[in-house]
Design a protein that fits this description.
The protein is of the alpha+beta class and 235 residues long. The protein folds into two domains: 176 residues, Histidine kinase-like ATPase, C-terminal domain (Heat Shock Protein 90, 2-Layer Sandwich); 36 residues, no CATH class. 25% of the residues lie in helices and 30% in strands. The protein has six helices and ten strands, in the order H-E-E-H-H-E-E-E-E-H-H-E-E-H-E-E. About 7% of the residues have low confidence.
Length: 235
């Protein structure tokens, strides 16, 4: 459910990551309810672009077994449709090898309203405007702008740490707000996100987490283990 500026940002960022983007640019105009995310990912051809905001049209789930093979952040095919319901939605996209891109605007039901050629490089640009304009009750419940930005910042930090090889460029209004350079591991991101921390302050350890192969991965059936790398401050 899209219930905040941060939720809208999260859905758009996750779509870009699912498209294997290595460079994500995020622009925010929180006072206008406007968000734009541009990426250099695999993008969408016109036929997919026309259906992108139709509910479940991009779902990765076709059978119950698919739930155990989910390899993407978004798999229900609901994010863009949800955004179209609460805002004006526009997507420009150009897949590899295409002579040009396309720009599509969508209705509140997710249907394509207008389709025009668009000049852009490989990738996708999604623009959300007038967020919650027609949902006054939800708009009135939004926190202050500084708190909204802190929520957005938290989303970016979480996604960046989970995908350290991605370049992130964020601006608020017309001002640069955050730039993160890629790193082979999350360790290289920590020192960028927390300026008071140096690389020498970090210690790498391992935490064992239960996991079992097979279709039944309920808590009672987990027997094997999976190790995850964790970075933390010394002292």
């Amino acid at each position: 459910m899209i219930d905040s500026l941060a939720a809208a940002v999260r859905e758009l960022i996750e779509n870009a990551l699912d498209a294997q983007a290595t460079h994500i640019t995020l622009a925010l105009w929180p006072d206008q309810g406007r968000v734009q995310v541009a990426d250099n990912g695999t993008a969408m051809a016109l036929d997919n672009l026309l259906q992108a905001a139709v509910p479940h049209s991009t779902s990765k789930i076709r059978t119950q077994a698919d739930l155990w093979r989910v390899a993407s952040l978004g798999f229900r095919g609901e994010a863009l449709h949800s955004l179209a319901q609460v805002a004006q939605l526009e997507i420009c996209s150009r897949p590899p090898g295409a002579e040009s891109g396309w720009r599509v605007t969508y209705s509140a039901t997710g249907e394509a309203l207008e389709t025009t050629p668009a000049a852009l490089g490989q990738g996708t640009v999604v623009t959300v405007t007038d967020l919650f304009k027609n949902w006054p009750a939800r708009r009135e419940r939004l926190p202050t702008l500084p708190r909204q930005l802190r929520q957005v910042q938290r989303v970016i930090y979480h996604c960046a740490l989970a995908h350290p090889t991605v370049t992130w460029v964020v601006q608020v209004g017309d001002r640069p707000w955050l730039t993160l350079t890629p790193s082979p591991t999350a360790r290289g991101l920590v020192t960028q996100l927390v300026r008071a921390v140096n690389d020498s302050d970090l210690h790498e350890g391992w935490q064992t987490a239960p996991w079992a192969e097979g279709s039944d991965n309920s808590l009672n059936s987990l027997q094997d283990s999976l190790q995850a790398s964790i970075y933390g401050l010394i002292g």
